[in-house]
Design a protein that fits this description.
It is built from one helix and eight strands, in the order ββββββββα. With about 150 residues, it is α+β, with helices and mostly antiparallel strands.
Length: about 150
């Protein structure tokens, strides 16, 4: 997991409410990886799970929330920048709790559902392979010359 800050720590603001609640944000770009199942390549779909949580502050000290439990890309067209290889179908957020050394911690588990755009692989990989294979099979069984018996090519 790699993180790059969008706003430096010195320039971030915190919002303090009248009841003492403090809201702060950490706008960042996170790079992560997930295991892919390539059995149906290039017509595959993948699900990647990303866990974000604080292992410094317990659930009694912080509250982690999500604004929505399930987001489709159609809901946020101005935020999501497309990708030529993958189509994001939905993003699901879920709050989970865990216990470590008797302390309760909260995490947000995001499940990102992806579908591969197969058109590139069909036109660059599958169609040329099919054409070359067909030509090889036809060439194997065509006569060597137009006159006389067919001779073997093997």
């Amino acid at each position: 997991l790699a993180q790059s800050q969008i706003i430096s720590e010195d320039d971030r603001m915190a919002e303090v409410m009248a009841d003492g609640t403090v809201y702060t944000t950490n706008p960042s770009v996170y790079d992560t990886w997930c295991t892919l199942n390539l059995n149906n390549f290039p017509f595959d779909s993948q699900q990647c799970t990303i866990n974000i949580g604080s292992w410094v502050y317990t659930a009694n000290e912080t509250t982690i929330t999500t604004q929505q439990t399930e987001i489709t890309v159609d809901d946020l067209p101005q935020v999501y920048q497309g990708n030529s290889e993958w189509e994001v179908t939905k993003i699901k957020g879920e709050i989970k709790s865990s216990i470590d050394d008797g302390d309760h911690f909260q995490e947000v588990w995001f499940t990102v559902s992806l579908r591969r755009r197969a058109s590139y692989y069909v036109f660059v990989l599958l169609v040329p392979t099919f054409i070359v294979t067909t030509l090889c099979i036809i060439g194997l069984f065509t006569p060597l010359d137009n006159y006389g018996d067919r001779s073997e090519r093997v």
